[in-house]
Design a protein that fits this description.
Helix content is 78%, strand content 0%. It is an all-alpha fold. The two termini are 40 Å apart. It has one domain: de novo design (two linked rop proteins). Residues 1-24 have low confidence and may be disordered. The longest helix is centred in the middle third of the chain and has 29 residues, at 59-87.
Length: 146
């Protein structure tokens, strides 16, 4: 009887340890504000790009905007995966941070290829929010540690 109850007790302890989110991953107020700002800046960039009125004959600009959106969507997908892991009480995959950075760089590099003068201010605004998102990602890395 003692053996079975100690096994059950051990399993209960193990289950609670697995289900409890890791402190490093949850973070404090500054960590979570940086996470929210990261999401807001990605969304702001997407909104800016969605508002561009691109002529159907300007294939390069349309392609560059679509490529930037792919990068932003990829960053968002990775972030959602991180949040899913945190909610499930799991560690976020170690490669996730670099995947977010790579996706934001992809978006920024795509935007840098747009050279149409009428879109200069829009592209600059989008690049500014991508840069801000990158800074937020760095804040998350710095603030979300124990």
């Amino acid at each position: 009887m003692v053996r079975i109850s100690s096994i059950v007790f051990g399993l209960a302890i193990a289950a609670s340890a697995v289900a409890a989110p890791h402190k490093r991953q949850i973070g404090g107020l500054d960590c979570n504000l940086a996470r929210l700002q990261l999401l807001f800046n990605i969304r702001a960039t997407q909104n800016t790009l969605n508002a561009m009125n691109i002529s159907s004959t300007d294939l390069h600009t349309g392609s560059a905007v679509a490529s930037a959106q792919v990068g932003l969507n990829s960053a968002n997908d990775v972030i959602q995966g991180i949040f899913g892991a945190l909610v499930a009480g799991q560690l976020a995959p170690a490669a996730s941070r670099q995947q977010v950075v790579d996706a934001l760089n992809h978006a920024n590099n795509s935007l840098a290829t747009i050279k149409v003068p009428e879109f200069n201010s829009t592209v600059q605004a989008a690049q500014a929010t991508v840069l801000a998102a990158g800074n937020n990602a760095n804040q998350v890395a710095a603030e979300c540690t124990a």
